[in-house]
Specification:
Blueprint lengths: L1 H53 L4 E2 L2 H18 L3 H15 L4 H11 L4 H22 E3 L2 E6 L2 H4 L2 E5 L18 E6 L1
Helix pairs in contact: 1-2, 2-3, 2-5, 3-4, 4-5
Length: 188
């Protein structure tokens, strides 16, 4: 009887040890997988920034509009990366570009440049996008840009932005919902 109890206790200890070790490995594997996933996402976002910086496929009939579009894309990318400081800088540049011909739009960009709260920047970016739509559409002479839409932005009201790529990079949610959205229109 004592032998059976010892054997049962020994087997229980071995089984318990195996479970603890395997659970510990599982937690470690999960943490490693999350770290790899986060690193891959950062790398993907970095590649997207480099791609945008080097390749704006669209041409505009007005040099100032082209400059404004490039700065707008920099602002969008900063919001995708949830980088309030970079968004401030891009908005400040956009404000300067638009100051002569588009005072109302320039003011919105200036408001983005004065806040460090990325959520407020995103709200103002929405207004900026709406005001820039006729400017971009009216000046594109060749190539294409993409109007994209996220139905979940702003508590389910949804909102749009412009991109140089069909691939979705959501400025309203950043890495929380990086690929949430769809191409709503291709502007040529």
């Amino acid at each position: 009887m004592k032998k059976q109890v010892r054997k049962l206790v020994s087997l229980s200890l071995v089984a318990g040890s195996l479970i603890m070790v395997s659970c510990g490995d599982s937690k470690k594997e999960n943490a490693e997988a999350e770290a790899v996933s986060h690193t891959e996402m950062e790398h993907e976002m970095h590649e997207e920034k480099e791609e945008v910086a080097t390749a704006v496929d669209a041409e505009f009939s007005d040099a100032k509009v082209k400059q404004a579009f490039t700065q707008y894309i920099s602002l969008k990318d900063a919001l995708v990366g949830t980088d309030a400081a970079a968004a401030k800088e891009a908005a400040k540049q956009l404000e300067g570009t638009l100051s002569e011909n588009n005072a109302e739009i320039s003011k919105i960009a200036g408001n983005i440049a004065t806040t460090e709260d990325v959520n407020k920047q995103r709200e103002m970016f929405s207004k900026l996008t709406a005001k820039l739509e006729p400017v971009f559409k009216g000046a594109i002479s060749s190539g294409k840009i993409y109007k994209q839409f996220c139905p979940m932005a702003f508590e389910g009201k949804g909102d749009s932005w412009y991109s140089t790529s069909e691939e979705i990079r959501n400025p309203y949610f950043g890495d929380k919902m990086l690929k949430c959205g769809r191409v709503e229109e291709t502007i040529m």
